[in-house]
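Side project, low priority. Logging it here so it doesn't get lost.
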Amino acid sequence: MSEVQSLNPYDEFPYPHLTHSHTHPERMETLASILGMNPAPADNCRVLELGCAAGFNLFPMAYALPESQFTGLDYSSVQIDYGLDRVKELELANVELICMDIMDIQADLGLFDYIIVHGIYSWVPETIRDQIMVVCRQNLAPEGIAYISYNTYPGWSMMGMVRGMMLYRVRDIEPPMEKADEARKLIEFLSEAIGTKESAFGAYLATYLELIRKKRTGTKVKDARLILHDELEEFNEPVYFYQFVDHASRNALQYLVETEFSNVIPSKFPQEVGDHLRQISQDTIDMEQYLDFLNFRTFRRTLLCHQELEVNRMLGPEAVFDLHLVSRARQATDKPEDLPANLFQFKGQDGASFTTDHPLTVAAFNYLAHIYPRAASFRELVEASLDEVSLKDGESITEHATLVAANFLRAYSYSESLVGFHIRPPNFVVEISDMPEASMVARWQLNYMVKVTNMRHERVELDDFSRQLLRYLDGKHSREDLIAVLTRDYQQGKFNLEEGESPPAGTSEAGEMLIKDMEKYLKFFARASLLIA
């Protein structure tokens, strides 16, 4: 047997170092609170991640939430050892990484407020899927929440065909890198040969290839890991949503909600579609299964809690009163011609839109746009919006505020790009100080990852110049210091100022561009939630 064949592929080609925003405990806390639970506060909780690899998803959380404790388990000693070295580099006292097989987890591991199981459930045998549910029951605190992601039907039916074709192509190939490369080349060949004009399958292949390109992590080896651990993994068993819920129920766990709230409400569809779904659905599970059919859903990020807990799914405006709101939506300047003059439309980055004729809601949307990326408490939002709107004599502020809450709850059901909710907003600043400081973990990630993680646990993509600038934002460099070190790095050829031909180092043109680009990216870092006080 060759050396390549004898190695554990998971050790030789570990899963890429990635962070996943939907796994953050504050997101789980917020959703559970909206639904009437009393979860542990994210800034003082215990978090367990199964299959943590080297722990890169936990590090930014632990840095941002120093009073919380984070435990990561993985069966790969290679990855755990690598992760422990990174913990020492970061000096994170609240992270523990343990080499342990999921099958060996017992109740004595302790109780956790949040359990994360990302990218495992669909990629392991049935015995391990059963054990995942056992762990989520026996090691979950009474008001705890478990996150599990998995592939779903009906959408994965198409992806299953692609996987089958890939597996057939590489059936006699052993080296993992060659496997991934040949599998990708086959799909590229099929896509080009079939075309997209008259073939639905050809269009699907083109979409799949575009998704692979977007997920690329920087190098050929890292990109190969995505295919090896997803499409070419030995096990890949999608399930229907109702089957997953049934599996959870057999282990005394109940479905809470999806991490993307907009995917559980039929608000994206015409009224008659929603009415018909309510007519044929017996319960929440029925409704969401039919929504999966309509959306051709391929992947879910599901939250579970203990079966005996009461969950309030009859949400009213009061659910918003104690939350902080953030919005990337902007008032549309190209609203449809047939839209009455008294209606205002707001659009999110994903194309979702919300239309209202309520003046206080319009003012509230505009206020959130003005302060973005900062969040505002609902009280602050209403008070700031009242400064822009004159109510008529006798009109109730409470009634108007309640309508604002109802409108934002409806917008939230459309898309988080319209409005996002937080029970406790992340800790970052939008003001650029004399000696700007960026997240220590983001600066550290520059050595290991293409995208860095901001204080909202979101991935941020940077170019060469912004990466170089970010390295020096340690709170110890003034703007003059930053220009000096950037000038030195530019002279050494560590980055370009613009695509194509850059001005010669040492010229006034280069100096002016350095200052201009530095100021531009400092503002970008602030809006990208990368700066701290």
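Brief comment: The CA atoms of residues 364 and 385 lie 5 Å apart.
Revisit when time allows.
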